[in-house]
Write a structure and sequence with these properties.
The complex is a heterodimer.
Chain A (H helix, E strand, L loop, with lengths): L19 H5 L15 E7 L5 E7 L1 H4 L4 E6 L31 E2 L5 E7 L2 H8 L3 E6 L6 H5 L14 E8 L3 H7 L2 E12 L8 E7 L4 E6 L4 H12 L6 E4 L15 H13 L3 E4 L2 H7 L3 E12 L5 E13 L6 H10 L9 E10 L13 H19 L3 H6 L8 E2 L5 E2 L4 H11 L3 H13 L2 E11 L7 H6 L9 E7 L5 E5 L8 H13 L6 E5 L16 H27 L7 E4 L2 E4 L2 E7 H10 L11 E7 L8 E11 L5 E11 L6 H21 L29 E5 L17 H18 L10 H9 L5
Parallel strand pairs in A: 1-12, 10-11, 14-15, 20-21, 27-28
Antiparallel strand pairs in A: 1-5, 2-4, 2-6, 3-5, 7-15, 8-13, 9-10, 9-12, 13-14, 16-17, 18-26, 19-20, 19-25, 22-23, 23-24, 26-27
Chain B lengths: L6 E3 L4 H10 L4 E4 L5 H6 L7 E4 L9 E3 L3 E5 L4 H6 L1 H6 L1 H8 L4 H6 L2 H7 L6 H8 L2 E6 L2 E6 H4 E3 L2 E2 L6 E8 L4 E6 L9 E8 L2 E7 L6 E2 L1 H6 L5 H5 L16 H20 L2
Parallel strand pairs in B: 1-3, 2-3
Antiparallel strand pairs in B: 4-5, 5-10, 6-7, 6-10, 8-9, 11-12, 12-13, 13-14
Classes of the chains: A alpha+beta, B alpha+beta.
Chain lengths: 782, 272
């Protein structure tokens, strides 16, 4: 990969990220760096029970502790609404009301029950330890199986059962296809419960000015505008008086695509005490009480012919919602349903999703959000079909790829562009031959290691989302457009204001590259503002690998508008017709007379002076565009890996990993490679290491980073990243998304490799050494 | 992650430190590298009234070589132990163990004395000290005494040091045929199980990490070992063990690992 030359830092160049100097030298500004006059620190007392009635809260000792300003419970704070959910796929689901601080009953261990406001964190923590809460325990349902059992205790008494929602989609001839199939394979494939573990935990500083009734909330969030809207609704204040700011944010992975109880409590507490309130989540709270992800079982069934053509799929998913609906909880399994056929042209499908309440932490988006679940299930069952047919795993995939694009699936999604055969062919070209592998496999066996290879050929849906699709297919409250302002200053510098809200993705860099390409303004002369609702037009934020395809397109379109307006001004300056001007390298020149030219910077100065403007052209170069995409985008690719399993201990080592991704046109290859690296590492985490575990009483056993194991740099192999380029027809940049693709692709590739090494059909993740050892003890063959 | 309030004392000599421990009547803790104690305080699993920070007592640092043994000051860091030529050649098990503790930051701050005095049954050094038949020196108001490893580790996070004593140095016999093999999921994690083997001709001393509330000798292996039957002897590694189960591993798997790792440790020790 070539590092960008001095000349160009535009689209396609591997430019170093302009954010990094600040972040890497400790000059970033995160929520916890904020100190406001009179600020009080909030500590939260959380439920120690998975399901219980609160019978008494004794706060007098805590109130008497030094430094304590207030102790507040659910009875002390008024809210106009409960914690919001912005997804209702069928439009008919009942949203149980959840007060931000529990009132009367708690439904998961870790639910906030009371808060202390004190002059420093230590005083707040000491006082919180003195609050005594009396509970009357209720029977808890911890797993979907328990929750669905006859006579199970209900998580929400006002509902008839623990089934929150059933989703279904079916074509007409599924049963016929199964009846005439040569082969039917079945398997239950599980996606375990995961915790996001961003480096920065949640944090909020809420400052409610009780004189002006203005509320400013600094939050470690992916969605400042959503947060503003929901703060207004839940706290009962005019949205015009609320300002939400996402400063530097240290990762989210979907956990910060939310509006949390704690954010509303901090705002209400600030109003109550008349002082700013800071809450910085402890790591143990982050494990216990930030939303979790995945927690979905898939009961898969494929009907196929002997030559490997899949005729039909039945998929029944059971999704654990946890105890409440967070902002997008219902969306996640809906996305699984939409992507259930994966990268294959399966003519007949029968898909249902049973979504279940349990007395656990709510689940919501986690890197990939429903698509890793779908991909893991279909990729694993395709491997199993290959095993059943005695066909190679690549061949069975190849025989089911769609051949023409756009391709409309049996679910009804239109995959915009693709060349699935192309990425698979490139993966195979980069991989060892079968003969080489078999030779190495023999050698490894002699030293007590079992080798295996796995692959996945994935497609995912991202670039969320056309607003009509947001309503019709996803049942979302908001649409899916994005906004951007491109503003030229008199001195020729540019400010971009984006509605996206990066928390590690490098938008300041990529957006500057787009501006350099469109306007010829040097990369280093472009500044990008994000994450502050006081400055930015409404933006829907950063999640679902949407930012480039939707937000980047908005930047491109706004820059294009600036250029076209500048063309009119330049035409006047050059005393030529606008149509007679060429634009290249930031300069307008008259066709055929290259010495007659003006730079974009000169045009900007002229437009700011506005002494003399063309007829009907307003002063300034400052354009805002709202872009609503016509379709989602569908990145795809083929990932392959090789593993070495220790025969005696079951420990898995990934010895090689090759990623071939196609995310359309690439703005910054270095950022794309970085996203693939991070995504693959995250997917390896799910495959081999991570898993949130509750005991039978609903107590989280994996409450720290000792028990909840995430891989470190030592465990992640060197990842070879490769690409093919199939531009998206959905947006003028021809781009797709890449933030989640690595996560989506890698998990089934790794599990497939371990299953291959052991000669077993499937294994439940995470593939801890003991899990693998037990599988070998049960007779997995070499 | 917010500890309770505590006093902080910074003695300049061992005698000062002992006096300060006495002043707090058993409610103070000695702070060395802090990589076990401070996280426990942040989780409020430990809440001492005072920390006695011995980090500036120079006499507690350093490595002394004698013909039969090596003496290591309690404040010597894992990185220093791992990098010392005299240890690498005279007692390779200790060097390799120190080199594999935690991550680089832990090895640069964590100390041999702190790790042993903390007596975490998932920590590596207690089992290694036990296998080596090493000893610790403690100083208290009644003077100095030497405690054999076998008498030092009492229970989970408990040693036979009294609350007003400070572990000042560790002494290990030289043992060139020695090795420690640990098994964990991630490089920086505590051992799920670890096996320390010290071989002298046809006899061996074996100790295990992570299979009980303190490091344990694998007595049945030692009894069976004849100087060459590593696989057969290692098969007894779990005899009489009641290894704990948790989210990392079941007791049954720990017992299996004990057999595998003891064999590997014996083989590695004999190959040196």
């Amino acid at each position: 990969m070539a590092i960008a030359s001095e000349q160009s830092k535009g689209i396609g160049q591997a430019v170093h990220r302009k954010e990094d100097r600040k972040l890497l030298t400790g000059k970033g500004r995160y929520v916890d760096d904020l100190k406001l006059p009179g600020m009080q620190h909030m500590a939260i007392v959380r439920s120690t029970h998975a399901h219980a009635d609160i019978t008494a809260i004794e706060t007098s000792q805590a109130k008497a502790m030094p430094g304590v300003t207030a102790v507040l419970t659910g009875e002390d704070l008024e809210f106009a609404a409960g914690v919001p959910c912005a997804s209702n796929p069928t439009g008919e689901m009942v949203h149980p009301v959840r007060p931000p601080l529990a009132k009367g009953r708690v439904r998961h261990a870790g639910e906030p029950v009371a808060v202390v406001l004190a002059s420093d964190r230590y005083a707040a923590a000491d006082a919180a330890a003195m609050i005594e809460i009396s509970y009357s325990p209720l029977p808890a349902v911890v797993t979907p199986e328990e929750a669905l059992a006859d006579g199970a205790p209900r998580v929400h008494e006002e509902l008839d059962s623990n089934v929150a929602l059933v989703l279904a989609h079916s074509t007409d001839n599924v049963d016929d296809a199964f009846a005439k199939a040569d082969v039917v394979v079945k398997q239950t494939i599980r996606n375990q419960r995961l915790i996001h573990v961003p480096i920065e935990t949640r944090g909020v500083v809420a400052d409610w000015n009780t004189a002006s009734d203005e509320l400013t909330v600094h939050s470690s969030t992916q969605v400042p505008h959503f947060l503003r809207t929901f703060l207004a609704i839940v706290c009962g204040v005019s949205e015009a008086k609320v300002r939400a700011i996402a400063p530097d944010v240290g990762g989210g992975f979907g956990s910060k695509l939310n509006a949390y109880a704690e954010e509303f409590v901090a705002a209400a507490a600030s109003r109550k005490i008349g002082a700013p309130v800071k809450w910085i989540e402890e790591r143990s709270e982050a494990m216990l009480a930030t939303c979790h992800g995945r927690a979905q079982d898939a009961h898969m069934e494929l009907a196929a012919t002997t030559d490997g053509k899949v005729l039909a799929m039945r998929a029944h998913y059971v999704q654990d919602y946890g105890s409440y609906l967070q902002m997008l909880t219902p969306l996640i399994s809906q996305l699984t349903l939409l992507m259930s056929p994966g990268a294959y042209a399966i003519p007949e499908v029968d898909v249902t999703v049973t979504n279940v309440y349990t007395n656990t932490v709510p689940t919501d988006a986690l890197r990939g959000a429903g698509r890793p679940e779908a991909t893991h299930a279909i990729e694993r069952i395709m491997d199993i079909l290959a095993l059943e047919l005695g066909m190679s795993r690549t061949e069975v995939r190849r025989r089911n790829f769609p051949q023409e694009f756009p391709f409309t699936t049996a679910i009804g999604l239109m995959y915009d562009s693709g060349d699935y055969e192309g990425t698979l062919a490139k993966l195979l070209e980069l991989s060892d031959s079968k003969a080489d592998f078999e030779r190495r496999r023999q050698e490894a066996a002699a030293r007590g290691k079992r080798l295996g290879r796995g692959l996945s050929t994935y497609v995912e849906v991202c670039g969320f989302v056309p607003s009509d699709v947001a309503r019709s297919a996803l049942g979302l409250t908001p649409g899916g457009w994005e906004s951007s302002t491109v503003r030229m200053h008199p001195t020729g510098k540019v400010t971009v204001i984006t509605g996206t809200s990066p928390h590690g993705q490098g938008h300041a860099t990529s957006w500057s590259q787009i501006v350099e390409t469109e306007l010829g303004i040097p990369f280093d002369d472009v500044e990008v503002i994000h994450g502050d609702t006081a400055f930015a037009p409404y933006g829907l934020g950063t999640y679902g690998s949407r930012s480039l395809a939707v937000g980047g397109t908005a930047v491109h379109l706004a820059a294009t508008k600036v250029r076209e307006k500048a063309r009119l001004v330049a035409a006047q300056m050059l005393e030529a017709a606008a149509d007679d001007l060429e634009f290249s390298g930031g300069t307008f020149s008259v066709k055929g007379s290259p010495d007659k030219s003006v730079t974009m910077q000169e045009v900007a100065f002229r437009a700011w002076q506005a002494f003399e403007m063309p007829e009907g052209v307003t002063p300034g170069l400052d354009e805002t565009v709202f872009f609503d995409p016509p379709n989602c985008v569908f990145p795809f690719g083929a990932h392959g890996c090789e593993v070495e399993v220790d025969e005696e201990t079951g420990k898995v080592e990934i010895t090689s990993y090759i990623a071939v991704d196609d995310c359309g046109n690439v703005v910054n290859p270095m950022i794309v490679d970085g996203q693939v690296h991070g995504g693959v590492a995250h997917g390896i985490g799910q495959a081999l290491y991570e898993g949130a575990v509750y005991d039978a009483n609903g107590q989280l056993l994996t409450g720290s980073l000792v028990e909840y194991v995430i891989p470190s740099a030592v465990e992640i192999p060197s990842i070879q990243t490769h690409r093919t380029v199939t531009p998206s027809p959905t947006n003028p940049l021809g781009v797709k998304g890449i933030g989640e693709a690595g996560t989506i692709a890698s998990t089934p590739a790794v599990v497939g490799a371990v299953c291959h090494a052991l000669g077993v059909r499937d294994l439940d993740m995470p593939l801890q050494p003991e899990t693998v050892w037990r599988a070998m003890e049960k007779g997995g063959t070499a | 992650m917010i500890p309770q309030a505590f006093e902080y004392e910074q003695p300049s000599s061992v005698a000062d430190a002992i006096a300060m421990l006495g002043k707090h009547g058993g409610e103070a803790r000695v702070l060395a590298g802090g990589h076990s104690l401070l996280p426990m305080m942040k989780l409020r699993l430990a809440a001492p009234d005072a920390l006695i920070d011995i980090g500036r007592i120079a006499s507690l640092r350093g490595i002394t070589d004698t013909p039969d043994a090596i003496t290591i000051g309690a404040l010597t860091t894992h990185a220093e132990v791992a990098g010392a030529e005299v240890i690498a050649s005279g007692c390779p098990i200790l060097a390799e163990t120190a080199a594999g503790i935690g991550d680089l930051q832990v090895r640069n701050r964590g100390t041999i004395g702190g790790s042993i005095a903390n007596a975490d049954p998932h920590g590596d050094l207690p089992a290694v000290l036990l296998a080596l038949d090493g000893e610790a020196t403690a100083e208290g108001p009644n003077g100095r005494r030497t405690i054999a490893a076998a008498d030092l580790f009492v229970d989970y996070l408990q040693t036979s040091l009294s609350p007003d004593e400070i572990l000042t140095e560790v002494r290990v016999p030289k043992a060139s045929n020695s090795a420690y093999v640990k098994f964990n999921r991630r490089a920086q994690d505590w051992a799920i199980v670890g096996a320390a083997a010290v071989v002298h001709g046809s006899s061996a001393r074996i100790a295990l990490t992570g299979v009980g509330s303190k490091p344990v000798r694998a007595a049945a292996v030692e009894a069976a070992f004849d100087g060459s039957n590593t696989a057969e002897a290692a098969g007894h590694a779990a005899d009489g063990l009641d290894a704990p189960s948790d989210t990392a591993a079941s007791g049954e798997y720990r017992a299996h690992l004990a057999r595998v790792l003891v064999r590997r440790a014996l083989e590695a020790a004999m190959a040196r």
